[in-house]
Amino acid sequence: MATRAVKVQPPLITSARFGNSLSTDQRAKRYIISMTIRVACFLSAVVAPLPWNVVLFVAAALLPGIAVLLGNARDNRPEPTASPFEEVERPALTTGEVVKGEVITDEQED
Questions:
Q1: How far is CA 42 from the centre of its chain?
Q2: What count of other Cβ atoms lies within 10 Å of the Cβ of residue 95?
Q3: Does residue 110 have a pLDDT over 60?
Q4: Distance between CA atoms of 63 and 41, rounded to whole angstroms?
Q5: What distances in angstroms separate CA 13 from CA 29, 77, 80, one per listed residue?
């Protein structure tokens, strides 16, 4: 049986980036969660006693900046680099033998 050498490069799925739509959805979700925590801090600060309400008001004041940073954080991984080709021996798909035949269509069957 004849064999031929084929250059094979395995896919680099583990180092691939997220798709743009998935990345945008994740960033929007992080922003909404951060702003929800901000609202919770502000509402808690209204009813909390004196030392805690100052901490919660400061947290509520700082969280918008943090939310924007998290909302704008993108996947900055570099593009995956190609690994070197490996020589792999595979069997040939054909033996080189030709089989003669004819095609019968519906019109010829009558």
A1: 35
A2: 9
A3: no
A4: 9
A5: 24, 13, 9
According to DSSP, the residues that pair with 3 across neighbouring strands are 91
Domain ranges across the chain: 19-80
pLDDT of residue 75: 67
Q: How many CB atoms lie within 10 A of CB 19?
A: 10
The DSSP bridge partners found for residue 6 are: 88
**Listed residue (33, 32, 12, 26) closest to 79, CA to CA:** 12
Indicate the SS3 state at residue 92. coil
What whole-number distance in Å separates Cα of residue 18 and Cα of residue 27?
12
pLDDT tens-digit map of 29-85: 888 999 999 999 999 999 999 999 999 999 999 999 988 888 787 766 666 565 566
The tokens for 10 are: 């395995």
